[in-house]
Design a protein that fits this description.
Radius of gyration: 20 Å
CATH class: Mainly Beta
Structural class: alpha+beta
Strand order of the largest sheet: 1-8-9-2-7-5-4
Shape: globular
CATH superfamily: Small protein B
Distance between the termini: 46 Å
Oligomer: single chain
């Protein structure tokens, strides 16, 4: 006899991160050296809006202030049903939750080596909203052109392979 699966056991797909928002421009504008996963301090209406997929991090950036990290410029569109009793601020400054050692490493690289910290994507991990941030070095114009050229070549190569088969 087939036993029904227990609801207590989670499928392996539940442990995989689910995408909320992505900053595609960051990988075009920067060389990403290292990535970190940070938690975000959110209000209730923001979590509901994220569950509905109403987030934009394409213009966001990370700053350091008083040995803490903050996300500026991320836009969470408030839902009318979820934010009736509060006055939502869609682009407020949100605190990022990182370990002290990670903050020290990031801050040192930004201040001494000229790196930038950019948000790459926002996702759900085990029911918590997480932000992947990248330690990045800016690209020059010729680097962007070569990236574009490589991307076009890969696309053309894929088309050729499909048509030959």
């Amino acid at each position: 006899m087939n036993q029904p699966k227990s609801k207590d056991k989670k499928d392996k797909t539940d442990d995989e991160p689910r995408q909320i928002a992505q900053n595609r421009r960051a990988r075009f504008d920067y060389f990403i050296e290292d990535t970190y996963e940070a938690g975000i301090a959110l209000e209730g209406w923001e979590v509901k809006s994220l569950r509905d997929g109403r987030a934009n991090i394409s213009e966001a950036y990370v700053i350091f202030k008083n040995n803490e990290t903050f996300l500026l410029g991320a836009h969470f569109i408030p839902m009318r049903e979820a934010s009736t009793h509060v006055n939502p601020d869609a682009i407020r400054t949100r605190k990022l939750l990182l370990q002290r050692r990670q903050i020290d490493v990031l801050r040192g690289k930004v201040e001494r080596a000229g790196y930038t910290v950019v948000p790459l994507d926002m996702h759900w991990t085990r029911g918590r909203a997480k932000l992947t941030i990248g330690l990045a070095k800016g690209k020059k114009l010729h680097d962007k052109r070569s990236t574009e050229k490589d991307r076009d070549w890969q696309r053309e190569k894929g088309r050729t392979m499909r048509h030959d088969s």
